[in-house]
Amino acid sequence: MSQNNINSDENLGEPARINHECDHEINEKEFRLTQVSFQFAFKKWILLINILLFQEVLEKYHNEMKESLKKLNDKIDNCTKAVEDLSDLTKKIPQWLIKLKNEKVPRVFVMIPDQKDWKKPAYVIY
């Protein structure tokens, strides 16, 4: 049974001996350069992640805008078709115009309330 037990004394063996006297001692300048290079690499890595995330967000936004523009385009097409169907009515518009000093001017109906009775407006045609 002791062979299968990972925590048995036989499997643990001796603790690792740590040599505090390194063959190569790193001086302060090398330490700072290493620290700066690690910081630079970390900042570069963070920047790359941000760029990738921004590209993903930008692509999603772009696709949403394309869908929105397609919907607006469909609405414009529907309105254009509706206006084309009203072409018969627009032929009657010149009949509603009058000539004043050789110019076509649309009739304007202005409602002016009667001074005696404000509930009964008077109509003036210009």
What labels describe this entry?
126 residues; alpha+beta; two-stranded antiparallel ribbon; two-stranded antiparallel sheet; 3 helices; 52% helix; 14% strand; coiled coil
Secondary structure: elements and pairs:
Elements: H1 9-12, H2 28-85, H3 87-90, E1 97-100, E2 103-106, E3 109-113, E4 121-125
Coiled coil: 55-89
Keywords: Coiled coil
| SSE series | HHHEEEE
Number of domains: 1
Radius of gyration: 43 Å
Cα distance spanning the termini:
112 Å
The structural class is alpha+beta
Q: How many strand elements?
A: 4
Integer average pLDDT = 69
Largest sheet strand order: 1-2
Which outline best applies?
rod-shaped
Strand content: 5-15%
Mind describing the biggest β-sheet?
Answer: 2 strands, antiparallel
Share of residues in helices: 40-55%
Number of helices: 3
Keywords: Coiled coil
Coiled coil: 55-89
Short overview:
Keywords: Coiled coil. The chain is an alpha+beta fold and 126 residues long. The chain has helices at 9-12, 28-85, 87-90; strands spanning 97-100, 103-106, 109-113, 121-125.
Task: Tell me what the structure shows.
This protein has 126 residues and is an alpha+beta fold. The protein has one domain. 52% of the residues lie in helices and 14% in strands. The protein is built from three helices and four strands, in the order αααββββ. The strands form two sheets. Strands 1-2 form a two-stranded antiparallel sheet. The chain has a two-stranded antiparallel ribbon with strand order 3-4. The protein is rod-shaped and about 95 Å long. The termini are far apart. The mean pLDDT is 69. Keywords: Coiled coil.
